[in-house]
Amino acid sequence: MNIALIGYGKMGREIEAIALDRGHQISLKVTRENADFTPGDLAGTDVAIEFSRPEAAVNNIQKCVSAGVPVVVGTTGWYDEFDAVVQQVNDNKGCLFYASNFSLGVNIFFKVNEYLAEIMNRYPEYQVSMEEIHHTQKLDAPSGTAITAAEKILGQIDRKESWKLDESEEDKDLVITAKRLPEVPGTHEVFYSSSIDTLSFKHEAHNRKGFALGSVLAAEFCHGKTGVYNMNNLLGL
Predict the structure, then answer these.
(1) Within 93-208, where are the H helices?
(2) What residue spans of 190-230 are helical by DSSP H?
(3) Which residues, at least 6 apart from 40, have a Cβ–Cβ distance to it below 8 Å?
(4) What is the per-residue pLDDT across 74-91, written as a single tens digit (0 to 9) for each?
(5) Which one is catalytic: 10, 111, 138, 164?
(6) Is the pLDDT of residue 36 over 90?
(7) CB burial class (10 A; 0-12, 13-18, 19+) of residue 33?
(8) pLDDT in tens, 46-60
(9) Any catalytic annotation for residue 134?
(10) pLDDT by residue (tens digit) across 133-151?
(11) Residue from 134, 152, 160, 188 carrying the catalytic annotation
């Protein structure tokens, strides 16, 4: 396949290495210098992989849809516009693959986290909280991965109604603590604490390769498809 890389930072370079290793070609690299690319620049591209900035993601998706190019989106922080984007994709018979995290391990973490929350709903003496740690270049907080994990918990634990960043005095809130430290690819941990003990469940990325591989697998999955997909479709979870 010919793959366009929209966003060519550290993640873009990791994706490029894996895509080339799997026999694909890179048809376009979008950097700060050509961030105003047009749909015409995607001619000859089979799939685009978008890892840019939250404020640029929706515009980049729209360009791919206009060009008839399936787009895999790893940027987070744009989900307030998710419904409108999906409508545009479906109206134009486009293809969108989105994920807050493309790591195979993280998506297994999501599934087990949801099952654990279902169990812990029966034990109100345990207070649930979360912590996420990322590198200092990450712009959004909490991470999209943390929000996804939190929403799965909220869907299972009746005593929690919403998530809050860093602090809350309301028992109904699930607190997510976000930390930014140098050279941390991504760590997410869920805690259930009572006066007697604490249970924790953690995913810790060792590097960016897991995210890059997942995005290339998603691009291969999207080739020739229309519709809206996520990691559950790719992994059959």
Answers:
(1) 104-120, 144-154
(2) 209-222
(3) 67
(4) 998 899 999 999 999 999
(5) 138
(6) yes
(7) exposed
(8) 999 999 999 999 999
(9) yes
(10) 999 988 788 998 899 999 9
(11) 134
